[in-house]
Write a structure and sequence with these properties.
- There is one protein chain.
- It contains 5 helices and 7 strands.
- α4 links the parallel β4 and β5.
- 28% of the residues are buried.
- The protein has 2 domains: 101 residues, Rossmann fold (3-Layer(aba) Sandwich); 36 residues, Up-down Bundle (Single alpha-helices involved in coiled-coils or other helix-helix interfaces).
- The chain is α/β, with parallel strands linked by helices.
- The radius of gyration is 17 Å and the shape is globular.
- The longest helix is centred in the N-terminal third of the chain and has 12 residues.
Amino acid sequence: LLRADIALIGLAVMGQNLIMNMNDHGFVVCAYNRTVSKVHDFLQNEAKGSKVIGAESLEDMVSKLKKPRRIILLVKAGQAVDDFIDKLVPLLEAGDIIIDGGNSEYRDTTLPANLLQAQRDYFGAHTYELLSNPGHFVHTNWTGHGGNVSSSSYNA
């Protein structure tokens, strides 16, 4: 069974092009779209002869991914992003990553705190070097609760 390195949700032009770009760079990509007929059309046309694999459902998509699972959302900003995140979170586990690749305004979506923290940890979004002490890096816990803040300690 071929396992995908990453999944992409949203098969509009930008999603299709990003999938083919990743495929061209050696990644196995799992393609999913809410309208499943778009997945079939994409596999039979633009992705024909590639290593791109399709998914019939979110559960199917998640099952085809290597762990930790990486999922790019390339859907319309706003409610669609929240809806997909709500459906994905119960299917994922600590260490899995959801990337909102659309043009969402950060105030438009309300991620669960544990998912937000896990993503910040993955991207190092709150690890910084002090100008007063070069070479010394500080990791700020944005949850305000102290303790271990690595993504593996969160149930995303």
